[in-house]
Amino acid sequence: MVIAYAVHPDATKGGDYVNRVIYTGPLQGKAMADYAVNDLKKKNTAVLYVDIDYGKSIFTAFKEEAGKLGANIGIERPFKMGDKDFSSILTAVKAANPDGLYVVGYYNEAAAIVKQAKEAGISAQLLGVDGFDSPKYLELGKTNTEGSTFTTSFYASDSRSVVKIFVNQWQDKFKDIPDMLSSQSYDAAMVILEGMQKVGTDKEKLKQAINDTKDLEGTSGKITFGKDHEVIKPVIFMTVKDGKFQFVKSKIYN
């Protein structure tokens, strides 16, 4: 089993037959804490997180790492998937006067939060997660998304040939731009096919071939698996500029 997109830390605990091509939720939270504190110099962040394992695992890691780096979480609030009115939460956020607002959730709620945050007069730097990485975030959030910076695993403008081929073929077939979920699914299939090309379909040999994957050129970066069956590849930071997703930087975290 090769997991394309599930970020709970326990997902790979099933033994030697389970690998994952997306980094864990906690790793994503750690990466954003590093970027917020060390790159953006944000020392007092408000965090709003969706009240499911996805939100809680990322938020917990962000809070722990930010604390290690000397930053403060001024206010933290959960919200539920499907929520539309965030006015009371954002009133509390504004009172805390943060310099960063980290939203750990998916694009529907994220778009509503950034819109209502702007309307509330909150000027904090907007930070997010791979749940932002959809054209729907830009469509729903409109100009309020400008300046948002988030972590993800793929960007369609990557100049590597594997990405160019993938994007061109995707556009030919579906007439739009692939997102990170499409990329993750493609890479998971690529890992399996690469293993089958090397050793065939014997389950023991295939398991070992997948576990031994090293520097496979995936659409989401070079894919290597550690001894814990977790992927080692860059976390990508994107921002919204002029209404489009634009690459900022990438970095490998352990």
Overall description:
This protein has about 250 residues and is an alpha/beta fold. It contains eight helices and twelve strands. It has helices spanning about 25-40, 55-70, 85-95, 105-120, 135-140, 160-175, 180-200, 205-210; strands at about 1-5, 20, 45-50, 70-80, 100-105, 125-130, 150, 215-220, 220-225, 230, 235-240, 245-250. The strands form three sheets. The protein has a seven-stranded mixed sheet, sandwiched between helices. Strands 8-9-10 form a three-stranded antiparallel sheet, with helices on one face. The protein has a two-stranded parallel ribbon with strand order 1-2. β8 (about 215-220) and β9 form a beta hairpin. α1 packs parallel to α2 (about 55-70), α4 packs parallel to α5 and α7 (about 180-200) crosses α8. The protein is globular. It starts with a strand and ends with a strand.
* Topology pattern, helix = H, strand = E: EEHEHEHEHEHEHHHEEEEE
- Summed up, the helix count is 8
- What is the topology, as strand order, of the major beta sheet? 4-3-5-6-7-11-12
**Beta-strand residue fraction:** 15-25%
Query: Which structural class matches the secondary elements?
Result: alpha/beta
Largest sheet: 7 strands, mixed
What's the mean pLDDT score? 96
Residue runs with pLDDT of under 50 for 5 or more positions: none
